[in-house]
Amino acid sequence: MKKRLLSVVLLLFSCAMIDAQEVQSEYKITLKSPGNPAESYTLTEDVSGYLKASQLLPIEIKQQKEEHGSATRITVTLRATDLVYYNFEEVCKLTTMQHADCQFLMPGFWYHRNMRSPKEAPSFATSDSWQVREDRLSTPLTGIYSDKTGDFYTVVRLDKFENESLATHSAGEIILTDKTSLGFTGFRNVGGTTALVFGFPYSEAPKTYIRKLTLAPAVQAFEKLEKGETRQLVWEIRKGKAADYSAFVADVWNYSYDTYRPQVYADAMSTAEAKRVLSNFFTESYVNKYDLKYFSGVHMRTDDCESTGSVEVGFVGRVLLNAFNALEYGEETNNTDLINKANSVFDSYLKHGFTPNGFFREFVDYSHNNETDIYSIRRQSEGAFAILNYLNYEKKQGRKHPEWEAKIKTLLANFQKLQGQDGSFPRKFDDQFRVTDPSGGSTPSATLPLTMAYTYFKNKEYMESAKRTAVYLEKELISKADYFSSTLDANCEDKEASLYASTAMYYLAMASAPKERDRYIDLSKKAAYFSLSWYYMWDVPFAQGQMLGDVGFKSRGWGNVSVENNHVDVFIFEFATVLDWLAKERNEPRFSQFSSVIKSSMLQLMPVKGHMFNIGKVGYYPEVVQHTNWDYGKNGKGFYNDIFAPGWTVASLWQMLSPDRVETYFNPKKK
After folding, report:
1. Which pLDDT tens digit goes with each residue over 251-303?
2. Domains of the chain
3. Vertex 327 angle, CA 325 and 333, to 5°
4. Strands of 500-546, DSSP E
5. How far apart are alpha carbons 443 and 440 in whole angstroms?
């Protein structure tokens, strides 16, 4: 028996080992002399591990490999024998995998082939080979998955990531002004064979993504090494097998978490203090000079945070959810000013906030006398979500609102008219129910209010509609690992689609009978891995003079937004609670541990007197946090875009800071 067990273990071990014939490495060093074009040299490895060119170069390069089961640790040491400006590259050809058979992963930035993204952003529409700087990614890792065999390979960079350098240009060959810790990673089609590509310092090709929907020519950075100076670089290549792309993403996330072990952010603000500071947003942003009263939270300048004439029900405005937050907090703290402001918002929307056919007036711009006439399932759902929270709260206080209940019933009847036979909801439509964007990527946003309405009104039709969304989500998004088009300011692969899908299944589980819960729990977990893959495992470095670095910002726990919008933000809402719930339901401690990282880290840029983080008013939480060489339109890495929407950031953090809200809605006796 022992011999048989030993043979099985040896067989499994041998299957996991990386075969040298399966991974064929090629090496290149590119050297630049100031004022001259760079020159590249092919390197070959000798028996001692030295990588040598066909001619003598002013730099020595030695590689050491260590096998650790399914992983190979690669350590490259470069030593300058004279002053040198260099860029090192390694290409690992995966000889058993054809590029055409593969899907790709660069967490938080690249999924499958990025074919949901516009051609103005990185995707296969431009090229089938991409390499990017590491700070674009939530983990500095590239993975390649074979649809044909289920085999995959990953390469991850291992370092302390302490340094960054300001660059004089954003494209072409650039000599760095200081030390950087940032290299590059990606994938390449090498004559039909797929390959991992990585190196140092960063080099982006065939394009570099510098601004929203703006691809610039390739960039290659060169680090200076003085004579006798050394630089050590470490990567780990790993082989594995997965049943499908979703299982691949889940495996990579678990591996990334175990590799980086992100820690809870020290000195995190307490929940009570965070809500106290955030509540200043409700106090200062209130606008009462129009028919709709609101908390101003969109199209605002970061430097002065002056209220604007724009008001938005959901998405980046979240005016109704913030009204509920202000009401609840006002009554908890006996703040009659907040109570009155919140109630005036609800009263104004009840009277003036609906279209002739019963949809929310989603976005109104009083400054330019303009109002959208194209509506979205995302904003409509988020408005309904807020009102159902409000109605449930009011009922508990003994206050009834039959007019509001009638409005919500009309809105939900509209939902049922819009829902497709496959269970999906169109992304956009007008007041006459004419669909202008049939994409179903925003469908999970509707699941939340439908389950809530079922619980509140005891109407089974709402639950049946919610269950139909689950069928669509499982078939078209979750089973295909295809999460897209949830956000409204981009149409591409994005974090919010998978986050909403996971959250939708959480709400369905809360509202369902025990025999149905397991299915929804498993679907929530599957989608959760995708959402988690957008959140940073590591702290990207910043250069001196980049504000985020100067204030000590740590990126771990923050989430990249989408392929199109390559910045981090605090979009979390109840997802941290979902992770804690899944950790218990499926005995997955990594989920709750990383949830703790998120909840502590996301409060670190809270604007308070003396520590305003370049925000004009206390409690107006920043939105477009630019952590890599990309900006939404202004200011670049280490700063914010000049315009922001604190309406949703405040609402998101408030929901995160109210972890019992969902469970007490569905199970009030547990409070």
Report:
1. 999 999 999 999 999 999 999 999 999 999 999 999 999 999 999 999 999 99
2. 19-260 (2.70.98), 373-526 (1.50.10.10)
3. 100
4. none
5. 5
